[in-house]
Write a structure and sequence with these properties.
The chain is mainly alpha-helical. It has two domains: about 10-50, no CATH class; about 55-174, no CATH class. It has six helices and three strands, in the order βαβαβαααα. A three-stranded parallel sheet has the order 1-2-3. Helix 2 (about 35-40) links the parallel strand 2 and strand 3 (about 45). It starts with 9 loop residues before the first strand and ends with a helix. About 15% of the residues are buried.
């Protein structure tokens, strides 16, 4: 009845008679000393038979889900940024602004190190539905801003260093 009204339902049990209820519940919690069938059906098995461990289990689950969302957003920002930059370079028919060694350093500083710390950060935020929508809501605008800003600055620098009065013209006249 609670599930029909949109509530999340948890069920605990330790015997074979609890298997169907554990299976139908959104979250099935079995006792470690319970039957093998009950432990096989449950999503969570309390090995020490203590409900006192559940708050830490929930906290760890929230941390993992929240940090996966953060890291996914970071990676998708870079993906949108990279795709947009590649498309802009093709449309304007200019050279790609980065060499492979630049991309390695850029990826390390903007993705690798931050993703490491984001994955390990504490997070007490409740898990929310619509993972893809939430990640895209932040990553697409962030990637578009980063890609556009990078391309505009590249065009400005390219014009400054290859146009009249550029660095090449100044050094070749000397």
């Amino acid at each position: 009845a609670l599930q029909a009204r949109g509530h999340t339902v948890a069920m605990t049990g330790d015997g074979v008679n609890d298997v169907l209820a554990l299976k139908d519940a959104d979250i099935g919690v079995a006792m470690g000393s319970g039957s093998e069938a009950t432990r096989a059906v449950a999503q969570i098995v309390l090995l020490n038979n203590s409900f006192a461990t559940l708050p830490s289990v929930v906290a760890e689950g929230r941390r993992v889900i929240g940090n996966i969302t953060r890291v996914a957003t970071l990676f998708l920002v870079k993906t949108v940024y990279s795709v947009l930059l590649a498309l802009l370079v093709v449309c304007w028919q200019v050279e790609y602004p980065f060499l492979p060694r630049h991309l390695t350093l850029l990826s390390t500083l903007t993705i690798g190190i931050p993703a490491f710390f984001l994955a390990l950060a504490p997070n007490t935020e409740r898990a929310r539905p619509h993972f893809v929508r939430r990640v895209m809501r932040y990553s697409v605008p962030g990637g578009v801003v980063a890609g556009t800003a990078t391309f505009v600055m590249y065009l400005i620098a390219r014009h400054h260093y290859t146009g009249a009065g550029s660095l090449e013209a100044e050094t070749s006249a000397a």
